[in-house]
Automatic annotation (TrEMBL):
SUPFAM superfamilies: Aldolase. InterPro entries: Aldolase_TIM, DapA-like. The keyword Membrane does not apply. The lineage of its organism: Bacteria, Bacillati, Actinomycetota, Actinomycetes, Kitasatosporales. PANTHER family: 5-DEHYDRO-4-DEOXYGLUCARATE DEHYDRATASE 2-RELATED (PTHR12128:SF19), DIHYDRODIPICOLINATE SYNTHASE (PTHR12128). This is Dihydrodipicolinate synthase family protein. Belongs to the DapA family. Keywords: Lyase. It comes from Streptomyces rugosispiralis.
Length: 300
């Protein structure tokens, strides 16, 4: 298969949409569609329903399927859809097949949450999923610094549809080594730690980055992408400074408020409710005001 259109889509801002809830706590379909259209109208070319910013682990099986279907309906013809899948291998395969049936283009495989991960077992897990959906592009989400580039290379040799890697280890030097050991040109390397890490990762081989902030301000994320593509690192760092406090709030206490801050910003803009599901928690009132002030300063 020709995966080049999918590779192009990954080399961009890969948006991770939030999953809004209604007053009863169910997925708010209308709000979700509206948020997706806002992303698409803003110029986003790749979206990942059921990502961590979408509260993947807090959604039921039925809700994950619903979010997948809603995303495909809104994004078809406008952006590539990269559906998050995970849990045990059988559940991940079932979700990947559902994504294929719904009309998605790719699946992103969440890092296994099992406490015991062997490198060969990591390969087997991803190979099982990739071989079940050879028509789809497959993107492992890698947060484990112990997975070596050689293991990724072996997975790519076995599965041609593994076309990219979302790399989310807080170490640009480690990323540079892993990407080169795996094959810098064999995979599309997506900086999985969003805008604050995008410039450093870009300098050593990434060509795309994921974003939760893009839910709030698509133009800000795309401005950073444009600067990085142009080799304008001072311009990219101007965006970095603009968003630094917002992203620092999300990263506090091992990213405890990763989703909460984004939803708070959207609530301040009147786009969805601030509700999140446990183990996340809404912000206290002083932080709510700070988030609202940051967003107001962006003129979005």
């Amino acid at each position: 298969m020709d995966y080049s259109p999918l590779r192009t889509a990954l080399a961009d801002v890969v948006a991770i949409p939030v999953t809004p809830y209604d007053a009863e706590g169910a997925v708010d379909r209308a709000a979700y569609r509206a948020l997706l259209r806002r992303l698409l109208d803003g110029g986003v070319k790749a979206v990942t329903p059921n990502g961590n910013t979408g509260e993947f682990y807090a959604l039921t099986l039925e809700e994950r399927r619903l979010v997948t279907e809603l995303t495909v309906e809104e994004a078809t013809g406008r952006a590539a859809v990269l559906v998050g899948v995970g849990h045990d291998a059988a559940t991940a395969v079932e979700a990947a097949r559902h994504a294929r049936a719904a009309g998605a283009d790719m699946v992103m495989v969440h890092q296994p949450v099992h406490p015991y991960v062997a490198q060969d077992g990591w390969i087997d897990y991803h190979r099982t999923i990739a071989e079940a959906v050879p028509e789809l592009g497959v993107v492992p989400y890698l947060r484990n610094p112990l997975i070596e580039g050689a293991a990724i290379a072996r997975l790519g040799e076995a599965c041609p549809n593994v076309i990219g890697v979302k790399y989310a280890v807080h170490d640009a030097t480690r990323f540079a080594a892993v990407a080169r050991d795996a094959g810098l040109d064999r995979f599309v390397w997506v900086a999985g730690l969003a805008e604050l890490y995008a410039p450093s990762y870009w300098a050593v081989g990434a060509t795309g980055f994921t974003s939760g902030l893009v839910n709030v301000a698509p133009n800000v994320s795309l401005n950073m992408l444009g600067a990085l593509r142009a080799g304008d690192y001072p311009g990219a760092m101007k965006v970095w400074e603009q968003i630094r406090r917002f992203e620092d709030l999300r990263a506090e206490r091992q990213s405890a408020n990763n989703v909460t801050v984004v939803k708070e910003a959207l609530a301040a803009m009147g786009l969805c409710r601030r509700d999140v599901r446990a183990p996340s928690k809404p912000l206290p009132e002083p932080r709510r005001a700070e988030v609202a002030a940051i967003v107001e300063g962006w003129s979005v």
